[in-house]
Amino acid sequence: MSIVLDTAQRVFTLNTKNSTYQMKADEHQVLLHTYYGARTDSSDKSYLCYPVDRGFSGNPHPVGKELRTYSLDVLPQEYSCFGTGDYRTTALRVCNGDGSRAAQLTYREYELRPGKYGIPGLPAVYGEEAEARTLAVRLEDKASGLEAELVYGVLEELDVITRAVKLTNRGQKPLVLEKAASLNLDWQYGDFQWITFYGRHAGEQNMQRTGLHHGIQSIGSVRGASSHQYNPFVMLCEPGCGEGSGDCYGFSFLYSGEFLAEVEQDQFCQTRFVCGIHPDNFSWKLEPGESLWLPEVAMAYSGQGTGGVSRIFHRTLREHVCRGVWKNRRRPVLVNNWEATYFDFTADRLVEIAREAADLGIELFVMDDGWFGKRDDDNSGLGDWEANEEKLGCTLAELGERVRKEGLEFGIWLEPEGISEDSRLYRTHPDWAVEIPGRAPCLSRNQLVLDLSRTDVQDYLIREITRILAQSKAVYVKWDMNRSLCDKFSGALAGERQGEFAHRYVLGLYRVLEELGRAFPQVLFEGCSGGGGRFDAGMLYYTPQIWGSDNTDAIGRLPLQYGASFGYPVSATGAHVSAVPNHQTGRVTSLYTRGCVAMAGTFGYELDIAGLSGKEKEEIRRQIAVFKEQYQLIQRGDYYRLLAPGAGSCTAWAMVEGSGKEALVTAVYQQVQANGPLVCLKVPGLAAGADYRMELVGADDLDLPQPLPFGFGPGETLTGAALGQCGFILPPAREDYQAWQIRVRRI
Ligand code: GLA
């Protein structure tokens, strides 16, 4: 049973295939968190809360008169509140009608619902009624009338539990929420490390693993979007946890705006994890009767280490977050003209690229920035979404038609949220840009941002994009967003509600994406924010893939695709083969290596195909054929990280078909070494008793080391058990950045 209720003891046990999560409303009506970890029985685990009289940890009235061992400061709770005796970082801080900052939530009732709850206007994990159940637990702050409905979605087979919160003011006076996190998770003991992903533009999602220390550690964003700088996916694990074993928890915040993820180790070495909307610059007024839904956190536990948790999230995001026709359909191999032409192109030039691309098996041509308004560089024109016919030499509709005539579908770049001061749109609607009256706004890439918290702006965008899609018949939109927000203010909000701006912006964005997605179900939307500046599970609900990074260097991509793989499936990360020397780093890598790395994402090209040699075109043709043939395995197979970038001479990963029929192993050497050490790779997930043959993909054109290690020669086979437990020897590198793509097939 996925949800087990002990109504007499008021114990709620949530079970997934391999995990159990438990809470209990105790005799003082506090909703305690009693357990989260490996699957166990549904007996009451509150015996683990050992009562001790802790000095300077106060006791709530009237319990405290009798019981000095009962303190909110030390009890593990489901939703902690500021101001009433819990001195750790808390999930909820409310300013009451009288100006006090205090809340104390007590249990009122629960409700079981079939299926998985949804959240109006916000992304959420979804599931069939047979796959999921929902538990709602209602808490109340008696003094103010604030109600907190904690909702839990249990997807047993998927191994995931979700949690969201709906706050309602059932009192008589307005309340102001100053901090309203979505998740609070407490452990009274245990030693943890936490894994986060930091970065920068063109260098996103670097994995960082550190121990906890006394105090609060946090990551987050106050940039309007989830940000390049920190990703809203984090893990907590035991110190010995590895890729394949050890206790590990993962948390994915389904939200694309400002977030805060905090972990605190307190005076008693207890650990608290809190995750939600960033409280800086957030406040939300709840008039009597009003409600606010807080975004969802999806969580998973695995005893199979970080790899186990990652594979749960890969499946969850692929099957239960991404929606629409592109969820399971093979995504087209595309060519994008950005790094081929930047702003300097005409329709003829684009059609030439499309013609060459069609010949190689590419299926979609994407016209990037520079096709509209006055936009020959990035200083002007954003907001004027009329094609620059003088520059192109034809209309948008004609260009779309010409590309289709070459046998490719047509796709288009938009940056709907951007607005240049030098644009007709800004001159007509200066009040639509995010600015604080009386202050000169901060520019970034010489642009401002449209106020998506406004309904009129949202409606305008829906109309404009509908027109562009109808005119161009584009089947793909690259939805870009090229700056961080600041100067947060909306002319449409009252002064006391300005703290709602950042969240309302995200709600506005979601509304626009939802309506366009519904109106154009066949269109593939790719998210982008200067690469991975808004790379999160919330966006994936609307755009099933996101451009991973503006860094297209195959070697530069290794750490960021490695980092992204912890919380996101291969099918989420946009990755392209680009020209050498690489435009970001100047590095020269082989076309083969670039193909191998881009194939660990949604595969495409971003270079001037017309300028390539015949041999290079042949290699591209080969890569595309491999990608199409191996698509299911690459995009939907079980993903294993084998070697981390930077750890040795080589980075490696494997995609393994669920039944162990086949695998695709990719290894990229960062460096060639004279007389270097051997690299041995183990391939998990194969059938132990079966025999496997290994083959170097594209070997005909590669300069192979001789002799090849055992397993690669004609007739040589290895068992699944040998490959899984002992591994195979990777052919050594012949040059820097050498990659090997290895097909492992059961015979
Ligand atoms: C962003 C994107 C790039 C490209 C440019 C165009 O940086 O990430 O891929 O589209 O904008 O201005």
Can you characterise this structure?
- This protein is α+β, with helices and mostly antiparallel strands and 747 residues long.
- Helix 11 (554-567) packs parallel to helix 12 (591-598).
- Alpha-D-galactopyranose binds next to loops.
- Uncertain segments are none
Structural class comes to alpha+beta
Write out the distinct hetero groups bound to the structure: alpha-D-galactopyranose
| Contiguous helical run count | 15
Distance N to C terminus: 40 Å
Q: In what order do the strands lie side by side in the largest sheet?
A: 6-7-8-9-19-15-14-11-12
The coarse silhouette is globular
Short description:
The chain is of the alpha+beta class and 747 residues long. 20% of the residues lie in helices and 29% in strands. The strands form 7 sheets. A 9-stranded antiparallel beta sheet has the order 6-7-8-9-19-15-14-11-12.
